[in-house]
Design brief:
This protein has a single domain, classed as 2,3-Dihydroxybiphenyl 1,2-Dioxygenase, domain 1 (Roll), CATH 3.10.180.10. Helices cover 17% and strands 40% of the residues. A hairpin with a 2-residue loop joins strand 3 and strand 4. It starts with 8 loop residues before the first strand and ends with a strand.
């Protein structure tokens, strides 16, 4: 018995339209699947080999800044951070160097944290 991969990462949101706009217009992701049910809406984004899903669901816990945090690997760290600043995205942590990577921590519209990440070569 072994775990093969991460199937998806679920980010709860309060306002699915506002969140979808953020993830698509601000982060540049493209929806690959949309499910609109009676009690919930899921929008999925394929990123590499996994899926990031934003979910508005009345029966599940809501968003929290202390919850799960995804790190998104970018090709141009400085350019991506600059674009986010121009779009007035809230930064929890300004860009910093760890020795093995560069990171910055931003907020989605519900306060959930997202790491912008670039591995050092």
């Amino acid at each position: 018995m072994k775990i093969k991969e991460i199937a998806f990462i679920r980010y709860p949101v309060l306002d699915i339209a506002r969140s979808r706009d953020f993830y698509e217009s601000i982060l540049g992701l493209k929806a690959t699947s949309v499910y609109e049910g009676k009690h919930s809406t899921w929008i999925e984004y394929n990123i590499g080999g996994t899926v990031l899903a934003i979910v508005a669901d009345k029966d599940m816990p809501g968003p929290t800044a202390e919850g799960v945090c995804v790190a998104l690997e970018v090709d141009n760290f400085d350019g991506f951070v600059s674009a986010l600043k121009k779009k007035k995205v809230k930064f929890f942590q300004k860009p910093f160097e760890t020795g093995v990577c560069r990171m910055a921590v931003i907020s989605d519209p519900d306060g959930s944290r997202i790491v912008i990440h670039k591995r050092n070569k």
